[in-house]
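Reopening this ticket.

The earlier resolution said the output was attached, but the attachment link was broken on my side. Pasting everything inline this time so it's all in one place.
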Amino acid sequence: MEKISRQRLWQNTGLAWGIGLMVVSAVFMYWHVTPFGNHSLMMSDMGTQYIPLLTALRHALRYQVFHFYTFSASLGSGLVPMVAYYLLSPFNLLVVFFGASQIPIAASVIIMVKIATIAATMTWYLQKHFHTTRRMTVVFALAFSFCGFVAVNDFDLMWLDSLVLLPLVAAGLDSLVTDGRPVLFFGSLLASILTNYYLGYMTCLFSVLYFAYVLYNWSGRTGGIRHWGNRVVRFGITGVLSGLSAAVILIPTGLGMLLTAKSTTDSLNFRLVPEFGAEFFTQFGVGATNYSQRLMHAPTVFVTSAVALLTLAYFVHPQFTRRQKWSAFALMLALFLSMWLRLFNTIWHLMQAPAGFPFRNVFFFSFVMVMLGFATWQAEPRRLARRWQLILPSFQVITLVGGAASVHVMLKLVTGRSAKLTRYFAGIQQVHWQSVWLSVVYLLLTAAVIFGTQRLWRRWGLSLLVVTEVAGNFILAMGTSQFGDQRAYAQAYQAENRQMATVNDPDGQLYRVQNDNTLINRAFQGKYNNYNDSLAFNFHGVAGYSSTLNENTRATLEQLGLFSDNVRRIGDVGLTPLTELLLGVKDTVHLTAGSGRTTPSPSYSGMGFAVSSALSTVQLTSDALENQESIMQALRPQRQAYFAQTKQLRDQVKVVQTVKGVKTKYHDHHVLKLRITANGPTYLWAPTGKTKYSTMAVNGTSVKPLTNANGKTALLRLGDFHAGQIITVTFAAKYPLALYHTEVKTLRQTQFDQLLQTVRQQQFKVHTVASHFKTQLQGQVTGTPSHHELYLSIPYDTGWQATVNGNRVQPRKLLNGLMGVPLQNGKNHVTLIYHVPGGRLGAVVSLVSLVSFGGLAYWWRAGEAGKRRRSHAPKEKA
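Inline output:
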């Protein structure tokens, strides 16, 4: 019988995986999503981050290049934080079976397999936790694998691993409490932290709550707290050692994340105020949130009407003790407060308020609901008193409709008072009424099946309702998605990859490239800003977008005049001849459908050059033109400024309140007439970000940047002009010109060319050393008494170790975020090798923790075995 039971357990687990795959396949078929159609999930973070990162991962796996530093993420950064944040899921290995142009298909397959695996692990957990091999465990597992969090955030595929592992963590805690066996908890928690440390951190917090819940009920059943202290000690030691065993990833990642803007906190995020209102109740219904609301919505607690109804029934069911009910209520209340109160919500989100995709911890609430719902199903819901069989569905209907009505009321109250809340409630109202009535229908049908049918019909009826409801919710959640075009992407990627292959360091040199336009944009339905094209096409650029972006690097580039939309993005809009020199930009690539055109940068002078100590004294401010002037004066001092101020002749301002019938916040429309006072490229700098760059035109010709930089700061090139030339610049802004200190200046080309000649006399000739694992640069430069420091267009990072002529030297920071190396007089052979900061310490801590746990687990197991032998040994007669 035990063998049959074991076979049934794994049969159910496999069945859940198969049905889960069939359901998600059906949803993708409905929307014609790859591999079942031409729609791809290249939207939001999937298109801008995951597709380029997965393409880069495929390249690394295909060519066995596993460096710990990359020059393809903005100016360069350590790879461990980025890989730990985005790419450590073992499911990502599936990319090796797809071509580079088919990565969007691979991403869809990875999502499908992950969702199916969530169903499998949840089925396994329910069978273990409730000591049953009923087929209905599969149905309840599907409710979790297609919960609201999955339906709304499936394209953020890195998060799905935590849902795969959560049932194993919970099962491990069950085993630890009831049998004293910590191995499953240790291994599954470690895997959860390693695959995605962000949600792994949340899983650690949940483990504390779940352990307390299981321990409280276990000690109650066993008639005391005789072993309570033993279990607490084992839980604490196992949890700590599991976390420490991930130190090989966590320590380098932690050090890397301290260099991002995430290291700063906002006191407003720690206020004890509610995060949502009665609209919370609408989220229990089908279709309550869709793609268009992904950045702002209430907690997506959807787990089907059946689970919601049975969870309520748990607290009035006669089979469960008061102890069980109160402990379950306490667990759910703690999880609810972790979302509802901002202080707790911030703590659960690693001390940072999420920038979009809120309530990322909601799936723990869904997990507990499924657990309690299945417990009620096991206990036979028809045993409830008749009044409860009527009250509970009625209560659900009232809260569902009442929550929807509150949205309408709140929208009226906040309109005109808060633009953010108006968008929030308006977004909910777009879908919630039809969702509410559909949810009411499902709820009434579910109640009728659960309370009004016999066992066989109840099983099949509930199974049909759950499967159609999860599929329907998933379909509705994807309803407003901005799908990409897979065929267009594949064709454009292949053409662009061929053209970019000529500039992705084919000869081992190190240089950067500006990609002026890109072919793959045509495959995106929404706006695509090409931040991570360098990862997708294996070249070195300037732009970058990730949650692991080094803040010093980003801030330095922004201070030099480049566009930064927020602390996770830096673009290449705003490059000038000086910044092309400083950043080692060798070529500008103009792509076409047939063949590309590469324009060499006149400023390119390698990846570094010897400089005087004057450069180390330059302190960057918020004025990009002033910063560039200071840098040029440090590189080659002269009395005359490099930037010549243009002469303003006239500024006509017309106040416009609406454009094409739509109210505009850029209501001051300028017609600015200027006289150029020097020969060279002319730039506009609006330091307070009150300009609408997309309206910018010079003499009637648009000069708007490729990336939408409206409302931000960026140096905008107006064109190349001659001294005495008069130009007319038209643009829209929020204020009159004088109020936000707009500057228009011309770079004196002749003087800058002389600066280039000076710099190139001390150019650093560098190349990369071929290696599968080590990131190493070597080069030569000549030092002089007046030029005794090497400026490198590489971000300062403590992981770089430098030697000059075989002697170890200490790199230092230049221009707030770039790197300098001290030089000797004469020829200098410079070697730079990257070592992961904290990598060795992390490896030692992980190894010690693994060995320590192995020893403790063996000791604990031996102790448990000894207790069992003594308890079964025959007692001696007196």
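Reporter confirms the inline version is readable. The chain has a mean pLDDT of 92. DSSP finds 25 helices and 29 strands in the chain.
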